Amino acid sequence: MKITIEGASEEFEQRLLELVAQHRHELTVTANTEWDADRAERYLRSLPASARVFARQVVEAHGRKDADELRGEFPDGLRGPTVALSRAVPRGVREGWWPEGTCAPITAVYDPDNPSWQKVIAYTMTSANLPIFREAFARVDAAKRAAESAGLYPGGEGKTTMSWTPSHDAGITKGYPGVTLRSGYKLVDVDGGSLPADGNQDGAEQQP
């Protein structure tokens, strides 16, 4: 059974939470697990570049990208980006970016005619999440353009964030999502990532 309650008063909420607590061993409770633009942007920025390109392909294909087409665009195979995608949501739960129970935004579709083979035929995103991730990519792209307009470049392989001390006439001191002032430095991301990727993120335990 799944129940959604909106517009409840604080008193009702408190009573409901007390009731849930009494039956906590019988219930699985998730709250606020939906994606929004802020979460989606953080998700995208936590990915290594190949996985972020993979996610963009699914979004630009209106939520369903044929797996064979993706294999043609990733000559080294889909193993690296798909493993990175599978690890991103659990990592976000550990980091407190979103709660337990948040669903992966991109899911694999398997060939129904060969269930034992488990061959992936497509990767999909729900219609509800599509506009959210389109907005998140727009934010990432805006930050990228801001960095490029200042003549900034990535800090090396696997390092997609760099520190920069802007001058007063730099012209990109505000108004660009993803360009954040921290301790006197602007962390400007050139290719779309802002969090260090795990060393094994492009390693794999699965073969799509």
What this model shows, in words?
The protein is an alpha+beta fold. It has two domains: 97 residues, no CATH class; 52 residues, no CATH class. Helices cover 38% and strands 12% of the residues. It is built from six helices and six strands, in the order αααβααββαβββ. The strands form two sheets. The protein has a three-stranded antiparallel beta sheet with strand order 1-3-2. A hairpin with a 2-residue loop joins strand 5 and strand 6. Helix 3 packs across helix 5. The protein is globular. The protein starts with 9 loop residues before the first helix and ends in a 19-residue tail after the last strand. The C terminus is likely disordered.
Describe the secondary structure blueprint for this structure:
Layout: H1 10-22, H2 37-45, H3 49-60, E1 64-66, H4 67-73, H5 79-95, E2 107-110, E3 120-124, H6 130-149, E4 161-164, E5 180-182, E6 185-189
Antiparallel strand pairs: 1-3, 2-3, 4-6, 5-6
Helix pairs in contact: 2-6, 3-5
